[in-house]
Amino acid sequence: MASSPPSASKPETLALTSLHGVGKAMADKLARLNLETRFDLLFHLPARFEDRTRLTPIHQLRHGQKALILGVIEGCQIQFGRRRSLIVQISDQGARIAMRLFYFNAQQQRALENSQWISCFGEARQGASGLEMAHPEYRAHALEPDESEITSDALTPVYPLTEGITHARIRKLILSVLASDLKQVEELLPTDILNATQFMPLAEALQILHTPKPEDDLSALAEFTHPAQQRLAMEELLAHHLALRDIKLKRAGDAAPSIHLNGVAWPKLLQSLPFSLTAAQARAVKDIEADFKSDRPALRLIQGDVGCGKTIVAAAAALHVVDSGFQVAIMAPTELLAEQHRRNFMAWCEPLNIKVAWLSSRLPAAEKRAAKAAIESGECQIAIGTHALFQASVNFKNLGLIVVDEQHRFGVDQRLALKAKGQTGAQIPHQIIMSATPIPRSLSMVYYADLDVSNIDELPPGRKPVTTVVLPNTRREEIQQRVQVACASGKQAYWVCPLIEESDALQAEAATDTAIKLSAALAGLKVELIHGKMKADLKDDIMQKFRSGEIDLLVATTVIEVGVDVPNASLMIIENSERLGLAQLHQLRGRVGRGDDQAACVLMYQSPLGQTSRRRLDIMRQTNDGFEIARHDLEFRGPGELMGTRQTGEHQLKIANIVRDQALLPLVEKTAKMLDEKCPDHIEKIVDRWVKHKAQYAEV
Ligand code: ADP
Ligand code: MG
């Protein structure tokens, strides 16, 4: 079937059915591995490598080692135990190992009984009666085979598979594409760049990875540090970086609402505040003002640790926009947080005669309708709410700015919907994203290169770091006493019961239980409960009471994770802290330490604590620095988790791994700049080669 005319299409677009022996059914199976073109096969890289280039003497085998062995068959019998299995005793220079098969047929058994020799490739495990290999790949031999018959000349690449495709099959397909198409893979990095960065040519890298030689460094290949893997990983990271950078460049050509900076609202608010801005806040405001002065749509990430004061920075932006005659949308991930923004903005805006609309999914229909009407008519200049704000039925008269708080909770989908919402004619609204989960630079280079970033790297004066202790929940009584004492002296505390179960309902139940127990244990304290299943009114009411000091101890699920601001609360207890991510713990802990008192956080855990959990909790104990915590989180959990995109599967890289390959990132940046100078026409080709969902990126 490889009969398409040579010039008809390039192999990067040639369907797999153009390969000999690949029909529609096979092509469909391959599509499940995201393999659609012949070039996709070329770039389908081994997940690992196996060494069958040499025999390992049985006496050298260790538990857990994967190896190729050859030995004499000493015996072959069926063992009846918990599970019936066929045991083949193998010996080699006096050392022994057993091959164990749980699945076998009579024919296999006979063949083994009639053979003298056997070679196996598999993992040796220490069983109850010595070393074993369960279901290795094996071959029985009548006579002692020649070593060269058993060993392969090269390391064996092992590819990701899917049902219905054998390893041998995919290997064969890849080898055939390698032979026919490799020469046509375009080298997109010119020689100067390769020389300067010391990366190997692409074709060479692909050849090595698909057909490694015995002398290739197996341990480097296993750790993905082999120069061939690094070359490909670098190109992939480069492609993502370039894709985002390109979006940023294109945005420069978009028209944006024109915002002037000589309004009175912001200076008035600034004057009325009981504090002055920190230098870092002032810098962030300046950055935004500079964005407004240029006439392209701003897309700025304001990142800064919990409590650094991002809200007032957003207010500065909002007031400039309102003063210029446009509307502002402020969007928060939870009802509670949106509610808090509402309170802040209402207090700030009322004296300035600016109207704030409040939208929540839980509003009665009539109120919702009224709020929407006020947004549509332009009567309200600022609209605050959760996702509900951006449902299809909400229309703005002239939206000029979108503020997204705590971006890491929003997926790209929401960012997309948001942007579509704001587009009025040719104008694209300005966007400000606020995040308390700082994105390490390494990540942002590859995932957020389209954003401008302002860092608020300073907390308002007088904040003291929260003292953190890690305690097993066997010391619960002691901890309760601590709460009792703190509250008796007029302080307030949070007691957080995070997800024991995934479901909201079960979480709520656990928290309810705890609240009842604590209420009984802590005589004289006013204990209240708040969780995600409660009606919004009730939640508001409880938060209001906590804020005013009527409630001493607030038992909560992780609904209070983001943004809640009650300065008098200075003690935070977190149960089952070992189950939470570092970023989440940091967010929770950030709820305290906002007032004048020295604040404390108790991380309770369920013993025994695994090693990784211990390390993670230790990090929480040792540092209050959100950037450092985010860096560790990235290492423990990967970028998807950190950015809240785990479920959607976006940001998936084929070869590169942002944590493992961090060291490549400076080279990625350098290479991007060199490409600009030397061959800008290759940029789009590199993006096309690696970024399948470019369309999605392009719209964000
Ligand atoms: P976050 O960055 O976590 O969203 P907020 O904007 O909620 O922080 O601010 C946290 C608290 O700090 C609020 O009570 C706010 O009024 C206060 N705050 C903000 N900026 C300053 C400042 N420059 N000086 C003193 N307090 C400030
Ligand atoms: Mg906030």
Explain what the structure shows.
- The protein has 700 residues and is α/β, with parallel strands linked by helices.
- 40% of the residues lie in helices and 18% in strands.
- The chain contains 26 helices and 21 strands.
- The protein has a 7-stranded parallel β-sheet, sandwiched between helices.
- Helix 9 (227-251) packs across helix 24 and helix 11 packs parallel to helix 12.
- The chain is globular and about 95 Å long.
Distance separating the two termini: 41 Å
Give the amount of beta strand, in percent.
Answer: 15-25%
Instruction: Summarize model confidence as the mean pLDDT.
Output: 86
What is the number of helical segments per DSSP (H or I, 4+ residues)? Answer: 26
Report the strand count: 21
The bound ligands are: adenosine-5'-diphosphate, magnesium ion
Helices and strands: which structural class?
Answer: alpha/beta
